Amino acid sequence: MRVGLVCAHAGPSRPAEGPPVGTHEHVARVAGELAVRGHDVRVYERRDDPALPASAEIDGYRVERVPVGPARPAGTAELVGYVSEFGRWLADRWVGEWTPEVVHGHYWVGGLAAAHAVRETDIPVVQTFHSLGIEQRRHLGREYDGPGERIPLERALTRAVDMAVAQCSDEVDELTRMGLRRASVAMVPTGVDIERFHPDGEAAPRDQRARILSVGGLSAGHGQDDLIRAMRLVGDAELVIAGGPPPDQLATHAEARRLRELAERAGVGDQVTLVGAVPHDQLATWYRSADVVACTPHYASAGRVSLEAMACGIPVVGYAMGGIADAVVDEVTGRLVPPGDIRTLGMTLRRLLADNAGRFAYGHAAVDRVRCSYTWERTAGALERLYERVVGRRAPAEVPVEVPDTVPVDTDTPVEGTTAGPVGV
């Protein structure tokens, strides 16, 4: 099968940047697994550096770098203006010797470009959002800083695709509230590299105190505030926060300073350590150094950190939401607590750190769960079956998506509750 994967952002294609993380890792691993299964796969990403080659062969699939937009890194808000041009480039490319049988858009900007490219064809479109603006705005509140046009364009995109892929149960529910029929939503969780993340191997240095590890960016919504406040109830343990800028830039980083000040005010300044950015290929050593990994973001669609920690045999204490709630089986592979309940979070961490046998059992069960349900091979297999289904239908999208020159901010979208009904066709 000929498969086109569209991600409108530029990829981390330079070797010095290390392995891809997040959406680009997802696309790269799916592409590689599909290629192993014998499919002809091409990945389309934006070319932001003229010095990069127009295409490259990687792990059995081809990467095509689309020359649209500025010749430099650009944020999502800036890229929205280039969606139509990106789509036209794809459409022109696909009338030549290679035409995809199915197109899979990634993130909302990539999905818009993919839908624009096939709107005059019968090529089916599958879409993975990776995160939804309406969900982020609900959970993050004032901390949400996405482009104003994102939410209405995501709603338009749901009417232009044959099938939407959700990465967790919460996202399935949200997509149906946005107007998609339940039969048009398939849940396919992200995968974990079990050759990189496993219990055996080196661990980062540590002292004698119990260690709680938090992994995530240093920005609003990642939940480090909650963990720092919870440490007052945990007792003699250290909280290590990995993520954010490089270590040599932590001293001048505003969020890092704020978190340190919060720790001092809470009386746990000597228990909280910020280590800065950790290369993704070195994260396993940090997971293995921890007694517990805490996952407390205010929004998490895929639950990647919880899955990586579980693959390393480390129990997870996390908020019962999004991908974390799907990944962590409460009282089997870790513990789930109500989002924002700092007292329950602190007491749960305290009890688990004191329960050596419980952590051992949770860790073993966590490894089994990841290896049975969250490998990249399993993810690619589920997508392969999904592609075969939509290609078999060969049905055009019900309504072609149009990207207007200006899109009004969706100020009337309900933020609380579930009253967002179907969008008229």
TrEMBL record:
Record-linked Pfam families? Glyco_trans_4_4 (PF13579), Glycos_transf_1 (PF00534)
Comp. bias intervals (Low complexity): 404-416
Where is each Glycosyl transferase family domain found?
206-357
Keyword Transferase in annotation: yes
Q: Where is the Glycosyltransferase subfamily 4-like N-terminal domain?
A: 22-191
Which UniProt keywords are listed?
A: Transferase
BP term (GO), one? carbohydrate derivative biosynthetic process
The answer to whether the entry has keyword Transferase is yes
Check the record and name the InterPro entries matching this protein.
Answer: Glyco_trans_1, Glyco_trans_4-like_N, Glycosyltransferase_grp1
**Which Gene Ontology terms cover its molecular function?**
glycosyltransferase activity
Where is the stretch described as Disordered?
404-425
Q: Do you know which PANTHER family this protein is assigned to?
A: SULFOQUINOVOSYL TRANSFERASE SQD2, TRANSFERASE
Q: What is this protein called?
A: Glycosyltransferase involved in cell wall bisynthesis
